[in-house]
Design brief:
Number of domains: 3
Radius of gyration: 25 Å
CATH topology of the largest domain: D-Maltodextrin-Binding Protein, domain 2
CATH architecture of the largest domain: 3-Layer(aba) Sandwich
Shape: elongated
Structural class: alpha/beta
Helix content: 40-55%
Number of strands: 11
Order of helices and strands: HHHHEEHEHEHEEHEHEHEHEEH
CATH class of the largest domain: Alpha Beta
Distance between the termini: 55 Å
Number of helices: 12
């Protein structure tokens, strides 16, 4: 998209993102738009469909189309590209989406503050977490939070650490939990509890005679089950190998699995060994279906992090949930 300003032709030489942002600021394009237009825009953006947005907002499809058209006219840019199935955000639409959620959240907070002296903690908190926090760390915290704030609903989705960070950056969720940070420039990260990655092996065959800790040569000589790309657990294991001069690209990979539960089951049936969280491994080690080992010379401890976007204004319910996690989970150490 190209924006031309007769007063300043140098705008066209700027990167497109900067050009659009400067355009909005200089023209005052954001001053006159209505909150209902922003809410409509956000609904269409999230669902990728005018029809679905209309259904969820309990209005007609023409009403949604008129709201979007009025907003585009006000701003002087196209916010969506019409496709055969639904719509997709343009570059201008993606920029506006970064702020639209914050604007509506602030407006809602102002209305609540003016409407009553005591603001109830209510509403939906959108949360995403990598596998280990989602399945082994957060359930108890969610139960405790539900008892404290029964009017609040936490929607928890599960993805790899990399995808969780992407969801936080794109404002798809308010709070994320990850096992590795990666590029965290846009994120506010709070270190939580500590975890350790260990090797699990079947209790029969050659691993049945291993003693803890095992040597790196035993790991490298064994068939290994790995997690898919983006896994914080896999990154911790790969980084530990690199730290001692071993190439994770040259290990004997037997399979790549998405779920640590699938890895435990495969290991228990003799498919190979695997690097998993001590939290994940503990029940299987206790019932004897797998054996657990540390590896001499490999440092495989990591922290879980709670993240949110630095520019994101959290809803009261999300802020209460964030504080609850800080009070109950931050800096607690897992010793398994």
């Amino acid at each position: 998209m190209e924006l031309i300003d007769a007063r300043n032709n140098s705008l066209t030489a700027m990167p497109s993102n900067e050009r659009l942002e400067l355009y909005f600021l200089e023209t005052g394009g954001l001053r006159n738009m209505e909150l209902r237009q922003l809410a409509t825009f956000l609904s269409v953006a999230r669902h990728g469909s005018v029809t679905e947005a209309a259904r969820r907002m309990f209005v007609s499809q023409p009403t949604v189309s008129l709201q979007i058209a009025a907003l585009e006219k006000e701003l002087g840019v196209l916010l969506f590209e019409r496709q055969s199935r639904g719509v997709a955000l343009t570059e201008a639409g993606r920029i506006l989406m970064r702020y639209a959620s914050d604007i509506l959240t602030l407006a809602d907070q102002a209305a609540q503050a003016m409407g009553r002296y005591i603001v109830d903690i209510a509403g939906t908190v959108r949360v995403a977490a990598s596998t280990v926090p989602a399945d082994y760390v957060l359930p108890r915290a969610l139960a405790e939070f539900a008892k404290l704030h029964p009017a609040a609903v936490v929607e928890l989705s599960r993805a790899s650490s990399g995808k969780v960070a992407e969801q936080v950056r794109s404002y798809d969720v308010e709070i994320g939990f990850v096992g590795s940070l990666g590029d965290a420039d846009e994120l506010e990260a709070v270190p939580m509890m500590e975890d350790e990655i260990i090797i699990i092996a079947p209790p029969f065959g050659e691993p049945g005679d291993w003693t803890d800790p095992i040597g790196l040569d035993q790991v490298l000589a064994s068939p290994i089950l790995c997690r898919l790309a983006g896994s914080g657990t896999q990154k911790t294991f790969d980084d530990a190998l690199r730290a001692v001069g071993a190439d994770p690209e040259r290990i004997n990979v037997r399979a790549r699995l998405e779920s640590p539960e699938a890895m435990k089951a495969a290991v228990a049936h003799g498919a190979g060994i695997a690097a998993v969280s001590a939290l994940v491994a503990a029940p299987a080690i206790a019932d004897g279906s797998v054996r657990g080992f540390r590896v001499e010379g490999l440092k495989m401890k990591r922290k879980f992090y709670m993240i949110h976007h630095k520019r994101k204004v959290l809803s009261p319910a999300a802020e209460a949930f964030r504080q609850h996690i800080i009070d109950t989970l931050v800096e607690k150490v897992v010793n398994n």
